[in-house]
Design goal:
Elements (H helix, E strand, L loop, with lengths): L1 H34 L4 H21 L10 H24 L2 H8 L2 H11 L7 H19 L6 H28 L3 H23 L14 H27 L4 H14 L8 H5 L1
Helix pairs in contact: 1-9, 1-10, 2-8, 2-9, 3-7, 3-8, 4-10, 5-7, 7-9
Length: 276
């Protein structure tokens, strides 16, 4: 009994860290996009670099021990990590916060579809029935969004698909390679950083106005670094939650995040968006 209570407490603590950090990063990133115009892919790269630096510090403090992994075993995971963060950031940049959060709820149906079709897993009828209101709610919100734009919906759709693949693979790789969340992220974060480092010059300026080495104010640099620190907590807690529960647990938990993020939004909502 004490062991079970301790395990539940650990899971609750992990969920709480993810909840608080995820809410903070949504509003902070939106602030950075709106007030500073910081480039999206570059911000994603900063997130990856700070995540790896955070894990490096944890390694030096003997919080975990790295495990040697073959790059070919995690290359797809690293690529999906790039897509997961980049497309969700683009969705946030091009949608209202409410629509961005609600679109993320669609990861639950997509993950269940992937696990059912590819991994031959079965789910209870109760779980399947919960997907109906989630799907209808997201569709209604998108249709009646007061700031609807097709580009935002495209990014949100791509974000949902890549995020779903990423979350399924995170759980599968941890079990396949027999590694914990820190060990896997320690190798995957720098690989993802390298991929984005090659991509950034083709999509965003490096110098001048809007470039990573442009004339940014101290406030902007501070906010971007803070965003990277919070991203480290988000990434690590996602890996930990999936590794200690299941890929389906995290998307269902996103529903609570959605409720908390959407309530304080100052963006006007129509009746059809509220009832969903």
């Amino acid at each position: 009994m004490p062991a079970r209570l301790f395990e539940n407490s650990r899971i609750a603590a992990g969920l709480l860290v993810n909840l608080l950090s995820s809410i903070c990063i949504v509003f902070l990133n939106k602030w950075i996009y709106v007030h500073y115009g910081f480039p999206n892919v570059t911000l994603t790269l900063v997130h990856f670099v700070v995540t790896w630096l955070g894990l490096f510090v944890c390694h030096k403090m003997d919080i975990f021990s790295p495990k040697s992994l073959r790059p070919t075993k995690i290359i797809l995971l690293a690529l999906s990590f790039c897509g997961f963060v980049a497309f969700t950031n683009l969705s946030l940049q091009n949608n209202t916060i409410g629509t961005y959060q609600l679109a993320k709820a669609m990861t639950t149906p997509v993950i269940i579809a992937i696990q059912t079709l590819h991994y031959r897993k079965t789910f209870s009828l109760k779980i399947k029935l919960t997907l109906v209101p989630i799907t209808l709610g997201v569709i209604l919100n998108s249709y009646y969004d007061v700031k609807f734009n097709m580009l935002g919906i495209v990014f949100a759709t791509l974000g949902v698909f890549v995020t779903s693949l990423y979350q399924v693979w995170v759980g599968a790789k941890q079990h396949e390679l027999q590694v914990n969340s820190m060990q896997l992220l320690y190798y995957q974060a720098p690989m993802s950083s390298a991929f984005l480092l090659v991509i950034v010059p083709f999509f965003e300026p490096l110098t001048g106005e809007g470039g990573i080495f442009g004339p940014w104010s101290i406030q902007a640099v501070t906010m971007v670094f803070l965003s990277g620190v919070i991203a480290f907590l988000v990434n690590l807690s996602i890996y930990w939650i999936i590794g200690n529960t299941s890929p389906v647990t995290y998307p269902f938990f996103l529903k609570y995040q959605t409720d908390l993020v959407c309530r304080p939004c100052a963006e006007p909502l129509k009746y059809h968006q509220i009832v969903q």
